[in-house]
Amino acid sequence: MKIKSIYQLREVAGEHMVVSTGADENAFNGVIMLNGTGAFLWKLLEEGAERDELIKKVLEEYEVDEETATIGVDDFINDIKNANLFE
Fold it and tell me: Could you tell me if residue 87 is inside a domain?
């Protein structure tokens, strides 16, 4: 999985936001706000990380159990898919 290259993660005043930098006619035209975990996952997805790798990285980075990590990653992936932000 990989995020479309027209979407960029920016940090402004300590806040993480995703903006569209391209002229794709189907591009989301607003701003998506992410918390720290969302920004962490976003960066991994920009590099093409797959679901299992995302779960592994969450388990390494945060003090959560595997079920919680899996649910969180799956929810995040579904949100990104529903917003049509994947290539």
Answer: no
